């Protein structure tokens, strides 16, 4: 089964191929023109232009993105003008001269869109009424195809007609299409991440909500003050866990929510649940996917310590490791057979651990395969789950609105959580 991660990798490869194709043709064009600058300088300039154009196009085919990209594309092609239209042929951006000639190109653009095929016309067939020399000698209109559909067109206006210029226009259109496809895949990836978070919430909530409400209700008569405190903790926990915006959070906010969870669980388990924290303050602002730690803590409590006679110790560690933060959740509970974790991506489907496969997939998708979970366990030897989180990653930003609403101080340094 092909995943969004596989699609992203495939599209990235296509993007590299398209980039190399454009670059190769550009070098040929430079040599044919015998430009005064060196080929090496031209290649460096080309790469710079392509990098800037690609970042603009990743925002999608909008007027703003087209306005930013067309100047770079025109410099790449060394042509009179470059324009980008939408799927209906409406010009989003035109950079360069001869923009008054678009009226003569409407039929050509319409044919390119309807037939999904490039169109090439020269000045003689345009019906241009300009008296004297015209800067427009040749026009190539290439459809921009995104996932099988025409999303718009690339118009390249040249002062000379040549097969190289036509080929360059085709390869540049392929490059633009690839960038637009990557933008589509990124949106699909974000939608998948949102779905995974919703699935994780659905998996966790029945277990904890039922037990938490039972614990609180049992204290209403015997210790109403404590019951009110736990109810407030429960309300804050659910508000954070079921928030609808943001895919990422800070370690500080995640730990604050874990503190709420453990406060309620300690009211339930009493002296059977002991917690030790070893948190380095310098990693508190590290950004990680939303709800990746709390499920691991819940696993340790439910499957490790609750099943051990007399309970045991839960240890949460977060330490600085250069460009990464090393985070671990460890219990000295009943443990499990390591063979059950051979295929960790399916572990959550067996019910062995709440959401562990989901968390593993999210870590790999966001940060790369090298950031998969590491699980150490054995029967009667406890379980330890280790996460590596890079301190900086592209497009990984916390949801600041949620963080600003938190009033609890995150737990830091080495300290025990006081038992209820």
TrEMBL record:
All copies of domain Histidine kinase/HSP90-like ATPase, residue ranges: 284-393
Record keywords: Kinase, Membrane, Transferase, Transmembrane, Transmembrane helix
A single MF term (Gene Ontology): phosphorelay sensor kinase activity
Gene Ontology annotations for the cellular component aspect, listed alphabetically: membrane
TM annotation in the entry: 12-30
Domain of life: Bacteria
Matching PANTHER family: SENSOR HISTIDINE KINASE YPDA (PTHR34220:SF7)
Protein's name according to its UniProt entry: Two-component system, LytT family, sensor kinase
Organism field: Lentzea waywayandensis
